[in-house]
Design brief:
The chain is built from five helices and eight strands.
């Protein structure tokens, strides 16, 4: 359902790039480096966002880190509590970097934070894979309307919306262009 208002771009390619750079630096600053940080992108669009943030962290911390060392994916689909209510996409592989996640600071990365149910499912999936020292959340868009007590640690843009509005994140890796559209 959309609001009926014309679609408008709320983040351009430049805005997205700037937000991801800021998030990468905030992650490094908050964790006093990135040696113990692991980024896990939540498919679909969280995965390329995590890769981009990881590349920026590797640039900010030269010499000791590579993107492959700190970026993975975590598909929480089978942990969702709404599998019967909405169509699901196909399962995507979960890939944890070789160092594992035990005693790491895991940063879950997603494109849009809305109800919080995807993040809850990711936390459940994460607990089956190991015991991180801490779990943080980075999102490109926080649109509000939380149904669970979940809050992002790193936010690209707070975008207050009505429930009838739709936020669409387009990324060049999947959609051929970078933009966030509100419709």
């Amino acid at each position: 359902m959309t609001s009926g208002a014309p679609a408008r771009v709320v983040l351009s390619e430049t805005d997205i790039s700037r937000a991801l750079t800021r998030i990468a630096h905030e992650i490094v600053e908050r964790n006093k480096g990135a040696e113990e940080v692991l980024l896990l992108g939540i498919p679909t669009r969280g995965a390329p966002l995590a890769a981009r943030i990881g590349a920026r962290i590797a640039e900010a911390e030269p010499g000791s880190l590579s993107t492959e060392d700190i970026v993975g994916t975590l598909d929480p689909t089978m942990y969702r509590d709404d599998l019967r209510r909405q169509p699901t996409r196909g399962l995507e592989p979960t890939r944890i970097p070789a160092a594992g996640l035990t005693d790491k600071v895991v940063v879950l990365v997603d494109d849009v934070l809305y109800s919080g149910r995807t993040v809850r499912a990711a936390l459940d999936a994460l607990s089956d894979l190991g015991r991180p020292r801490a779990v943080q959340l980075a999102v490109l868009i926080d649109r509000g309307h939380r149904e669970l007590p979940i809050r992002a640690d790193y936010i690209g843009k707070n975008l207050p919306t009505s429930r009838s509005e739709r936020v669409s994140v387009h990324l060049s890796e999947l959609d051929g262009a970078d933009e966030v559209v509100l419709s």
